[in-house]
């Protein structure tokens, strides 16, 4: 541990200090009297539900929005950013969940964009550029070829390119917004090694995440926000999960995984020998009414591809899907929906919503044919259905006529759920139902899924969140490299058992009765 990290925050000057800042957008008060100090050599977690004001807060630090009132100092100097360029020049870098790089340029060109070393006649000195970026990557402990194009890099590697770019700009304040949401366990471990290296260099890291286990493992201090206001700040040792959650949501959360005793009905979904070349093969399982079955495995195991083939989005080369007694025509989403199948996709923004349409219209997208008489939409029925489901799901919105893009990620997920629940499905497939969703909204989504199962709905849940899988599933099916390799009951399932199967540890797999 460095000398900086051993010193108490009160004895050193913060690299960044924002005091009593506010921000409104018309009648909506997004931030009110929020303060934070970021110290060198420290990872500081910023926590809050979706809609708590975290994004607005970050955009003020990034120079995208101007604060109203309060003060900002960076490295002891007063600052008032009018643009992102001014924030960058002051040493502040933002690492977003989805990096914004030029895919057809090389790693080195992206890192040193606009600042490439020059050779004779003003030409870019490619050798010097690659050498400089190689050194930056070496400082981070990362093995990336600086000459390779960014296209094809994983999200994790793209984030490392963004971090190298920040170092090349001499950034000493790095803000990471949900950096691990789309990463595998090994990629997450590598990212945190890089974060520790940054702290060793004396950088301040502001870490925004919904994964509380990462906060307690990697951060030294915590700031909690709720409804656009500051709630608390303190050392991580002063907090536990229950306190953080209570401060974030302003109430006792209750059971995060409210899964009671199940009452099984008849088979609602039957999949037999489902195959898709190069993706998965010979997948067979059943889901009964009243049951939540989880499809677990590592990223790339083929889980989402199976869901898409069941729903008819992607073609299948063989196999059969039944909803109840009805065999579903392959490669037809219309047939799947008519039979009572719904799919909440992994990517809500690209696959689940039309971002420019209203919340109300998005909530009704799957049943527009029911709401249309001739050429006219039954606006009253549309409004009533949207109000019904958004109320049940406790959606937080100003007006249902607002574009769905105005909502936080957690509330967007609720609109996708509302869209499919409006169809009154008998089987619901939910792919990563709480990815990017705060803990309060996560509890509400879990409660909804539990209530739906209790009412007789069959739920097939795909999740990379192992606590979610273990907490919500009645049975767990584990995939590895396109194969179904094992099944675990709720009683025998634990994290080690799932991971052994997912990673191919055959000794345990045999003990568990895996295929």
Structural class: alpha/beta
Q: How much helical structure, as a percent, in the residues? A: 25-40%
Q: Which consecutive residue ranges, at least 5 long each, have pLDDT under 50?
A: 1-9, 507-515
Compute the number of helices: 20
Q: Name the beta content range.
A: 15-25%
Tell me the name of the CATH homologous superfamily of the largest domain. Answer: P-loop containing nucleotide triphosphate hydrolases
Largest sheet: 6 strands, mixed
Q: In order across it, which strands form the biggest sheet? A: 6-7-8-3-9-10
CATH architecture of the largest domain: 3-Layer(aba) Sandwich
Tell me the total number of β-strands: 22
Which term fits the overall shape? globular
Mean pLDDT: 87
Report Rg: 25 Å
CATH fold title of the largest domain: Rossmann fold
Please characterize this protein's 3D structure.
- With 515 residues, this protein is of the alpha/beta class.
- It is built from 20 helices and 22 strands.
- It is 34% helix and 24% strand.
- The chain has a six-stranded mixed beta sheet, sandwiched between helices. The chain has a six-stranded mixed beta sheet with strand order 16-19-20-13-21-22, with helices on both faces.
- A hairpin with a 2-residue loop joins strand 14 (318-323) and strand 15.
- Residues 1-9 and 507-515 have low confidence and may be disordered.
């Amino acid at each position: 541990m460095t000398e900086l990290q051993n010193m108490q925050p009160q004895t050193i000057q913060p690299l960044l200090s924002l005091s009593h800042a506010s921000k409104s957008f018309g009648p909506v008060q997004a931030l009110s009297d929020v303060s934070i100090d970021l110290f060198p050599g420290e990872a500081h977690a910023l926590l809050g539900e979706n809609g708590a004001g975290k994004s607005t807060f970050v955009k003020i630090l990034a120079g995208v929005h101007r604060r109203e009132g309060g003060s900002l100092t960076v490295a002891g100097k007063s600052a008032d950013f009018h643009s992102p360029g001014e924030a960058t020049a002051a040493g502040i870098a933002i690492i977003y969940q989805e990096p914004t790089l030029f895919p057809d340029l090389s790693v080195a060109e992206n890192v040193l964009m606009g600042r490439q070393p020059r050779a004779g006649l003003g030409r870019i000195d490619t050798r010097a550029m690659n050498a400089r970026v190689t050194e930056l990557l070496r400082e981070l402990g990362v093995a990336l070829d600086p000459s390779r194009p960014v296209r094809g890099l994983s999200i994790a590697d793209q984030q490392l390119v963004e971090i190298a770019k920040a170092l090349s700009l001499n950034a000493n304040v790095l803000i990471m917004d949900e950096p691990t949401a789309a990463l595998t366990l090994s990629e997450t471990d590598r990212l945190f090694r890089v974060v520790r290296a940054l702290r060793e260099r004396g950088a301040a890291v502001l870490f925004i995440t919904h994964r509380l286990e990462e906060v307690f493992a990697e951060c030294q201090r915590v700031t909690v926000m709720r409804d656009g206001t500051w709630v608390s700040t303190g050392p991580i040792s002063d907090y536990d999960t229950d306190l953080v959650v209570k401060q974030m949501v302003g109430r006792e959360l209750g059971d995060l995984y409210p899964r009671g005793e199940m009452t099984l009905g008849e088979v609602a979904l039957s999949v037999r020998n489902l195959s898709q070349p190069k993706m998965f093969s010979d997948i067979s399982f059943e889901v009964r009414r009243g049951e939540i079955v989880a499809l677990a495995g590592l990223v790339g195991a083929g889980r989402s591809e199976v869901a898409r083939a069941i729903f008819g989005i992607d073609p299948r080369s063989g196999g059969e899907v039944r909803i109840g007694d009805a065999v579903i025509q392959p490669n037809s989403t219309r047939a799947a929906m008519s039979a009572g199948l719904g799919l909440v996709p992994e990517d809500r923004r690209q696959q689940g919503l039309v971002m420019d349409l209203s919340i109300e219209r998005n909530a009704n997208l799957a049943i527009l044919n029911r709401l249309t008489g001739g050429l006219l939409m039954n606006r009253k029925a549309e409004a009533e259905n949207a109000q019904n489901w958004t109320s049940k799901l406790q959606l937080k919105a100003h007006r249902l006529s607002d574009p769905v893009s105005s909502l936080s990620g957690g509330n967007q997920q609720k609109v996708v759920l509302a869209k499919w629940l409006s169809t009154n499905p008998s089987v619901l497939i939910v792919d990563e139902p709480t990815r990017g969703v705060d803990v309060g909204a996560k509890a509400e989504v879990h409660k909804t899924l539990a209530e739906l199962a209790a009412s007789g709905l069959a739920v097939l849940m795909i999740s990379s969140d192992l606590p979610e899988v273990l907490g919500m599933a009645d049975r767990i099916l584990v995939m590895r490299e396109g194969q179904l390799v094992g099944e675990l009951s709720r009683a025998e399932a634990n994290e080690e058992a799932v991971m052994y199967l997912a990673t191919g540890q055959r000794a345990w797999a045999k003990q568990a009765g895996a295929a």
